[in-house]
Amino acid sequence: MKRGRQAEARRNDLLVLDAAREVFAVHGPDAPIGAVAERAGVGIGTLYRRYGGKADLLRRLCMLAMEQTIEAAEAALAAEDAWRGLAGYVTTCVGFRSGALGALAGTVETTPELWETSRRGRALLEEVVARARRAGGLRPDVTALDVSWLVELFGRHGVGDEGVRRRLLAIALDGLRAGAAEPLPGPAPSAADYEGRWRHPGTARGDGR
């Protein structure tokens, strides 16, 4: 019985997460929580009873989003073909718009648990990328953070309808493949750049270290 309640809670969480992704992708981080509740088809009172205040809700949504990307990375590592595993990771994460919550960067006070989960997800993606590179499918100058930002880019509003998004994603994935190509411009993104966006100005450090 307990497992059934946990599964139902997880489904409800994901319903709210999907609604939040759509709302924040369209309206940005200042979108009212009422718009999320309306999109999810629940009352705002129900939302606050379950998650507490807006900050708690946003942290929960970020955690759920990272957990989804971790599951996608684990599936990619289990794939027989390394390139298909990487392409599957990107396609899956774009499909559930994991990057849409990037609009919240710097607006949510983070916790050590969030940082730990974020770094676990990025470590797994590093493995996915390294595996595809070793197998010869991925161009050598593409990094895991390049892939993360590509996923975020496709999670934003305005990329086009679903058919256009699929076409552009296929083009982008081909651009990741090894082969004759011009070197990528500029330095590779760093972890400091990536994490710096999420540091909340209200704290000296957001990772608890």
Could you describe the 3D structure shown?
- With 209 residues, this protein is an all-alpha fold.
- The chain has a domain at 58-196: Tetracycline Repressor, domain 2 (Orthogonal Bundle), CATH 1.10.357.10.
- It is 66% helix and 0% strand.
- The protein contains nine helices and no strands.
- Helix 4 (54-78) packs antiparallel against helix 5 and helix 6 packs across helix 7 (144-155).
- The longest helix has 26 residues, at 2-27.
- The protein is globular, with a radius of gyration of 18 Å.
Report the CATH C-level class of the domain at 58-196: Mainly Alpha
Provide the helix percentage: 55-70%
Largest sheet: none
Taking all Cα atoms into account, the compactness measure Rg is 18 Å
Q: Provide the succession of SSEs.
A: HHHHHHHHH
Alpha plus pi helix count:
9
Describe the secondary structure blueprint for this structure.
Blueprint: H1 2-27, H2 33-40, H3 44-51, H4 54-78, H5 82-95, H6 112-134, H7 144-155, H8 162-176, H9 191-196
Helix pairs in contact: 1-2, 4-5, 4-6, 5-6, 5-7, 6-7
